[in-house]
């Protein structure tokens, strides 16, 4: 069986760091402070998963689960336009037909869910296998963010741990069974340890940390954005700068 390529992000540095892009069959988590670019990254991936196969893409579709209400369709259109232009440019250079991917086709290839609380999120995740069976072009499920409802609605920490564990298992099953990428975003939280300076770590605690196969921390250094590969089964820890432009994520 031929293995499918990963999903590119249009930041070559980030893609190289990940071994070509965001891999299928695995869970990749982007963590970072507000405004650093997690939502932009999700929108970029939702668009790029749709790049036609003649350009080396997956020609797939995306499920986009928005828990925060931060998905902006106009922003998706901007990113889609840039990707469509890029593909048409390649088509001209290689003598392929243009128009294989359009802004309209990209929009209809994003299956959007808005989840207002953790019950809606868990229900949506629970129904995904049936949905993906009906839409076999789906190659990525994005959840932006997984942390939101579990940080604000929760007093019962043992219930939270149980629900997160169940959800993590659902994601692992989806990733392997359907051979799709799972992309999650997470917030950062301050960790206080005795005898140590407090530091920022991904939210939702240590047991959740095992849920994702790959963890990338996005952070600022001065004016520059950096992506830090923090956890990976096969690549060594490293960092690359990236940018967010009008057209989306770039080097
Ligand atoms: P939060 O934790 O609050 O959800 P986030 O990590 O999801 O934050 P994003 O919403 O992805 O952050 O990033 C927002 C940032 O993306 C903006 O502050 C801006 O710097 C950048 N950005 C958004 N649109 C554009 C654009 N059209 N051109 C350039 N940069 C943009
Ligand atoms: Mg966001």
From TrEMBL:
GO CC annotation, single: Rad51C-XRCC3 complex
Main location: nucleus
Keywords: ATP-binding, DNA damage, DNA repair, Nucleotide-binding, Nucleus
Gene Ontology terms, MF aspect: ATP binding; ATP-dependent DNA damage sensor activity; crossover junction DNA endonuclease activity; four-way junction DNA binding
Localization (cell): Nucleus
One GO BP annotation of this record: meiotic DNA recombinase assembly
Ranges of residues in domain RecA family profile: 3-188
Protein name: DNA repair protein RAD51 homolog 3
Portion of the full sequence shown: 84 to 334 of 359
């Amino acid at each position: 069986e031929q293995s499918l390529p990963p999903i590119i992000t249009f930041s070559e540095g980030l893609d190289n760091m990940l071994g070509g892009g965001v891999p299928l069959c695995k869970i990749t988590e982007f963590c970072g402070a507000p405004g650093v670019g997690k939502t932009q990254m999700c929108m970029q991936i939702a668009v790029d998963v749709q790049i036609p196969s003649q350009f080396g893409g997956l020609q797939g579709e995306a499920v986009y689960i928005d828990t925060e209400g931060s998905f902006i369709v106009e922003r998706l259109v901007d990113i889609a336009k840039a990707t469509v232009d890029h593909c048409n440019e390649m088509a001209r250079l290689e003598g392929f037909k243009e128009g294989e991917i359009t802004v309209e086709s990209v929009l209809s290839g994003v299956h959007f869910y808005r989840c207002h609380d953790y019950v809606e999120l868990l229900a949506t995740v629970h129904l995904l296998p049936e949905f993906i069976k009906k839409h076999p072009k789906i190659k990525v499920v994005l959840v932006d963010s997984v942390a939101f409802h579990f940080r604000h609605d929760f007093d019962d920490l043992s219930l939270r741990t149980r629900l997160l564990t169940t959800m993590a298992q659902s994601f692992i099953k989806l990733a392997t069974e359907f051979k799709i990428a799972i992309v999650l975003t997470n917030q950062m939280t301050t960790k206080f340890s005795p005898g140590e300076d407090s530091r920022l770590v991904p939210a939702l605690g240590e047991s959740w940390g095992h849920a994702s196969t790959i963890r990338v921390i996005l952070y600022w250094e001065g004016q520059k954005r950096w992506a830090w590969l923090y956890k990976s089964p096969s690549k060594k820890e490293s960092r690359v700068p990236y940018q967010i432009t009008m057209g989306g994520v770039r080097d």
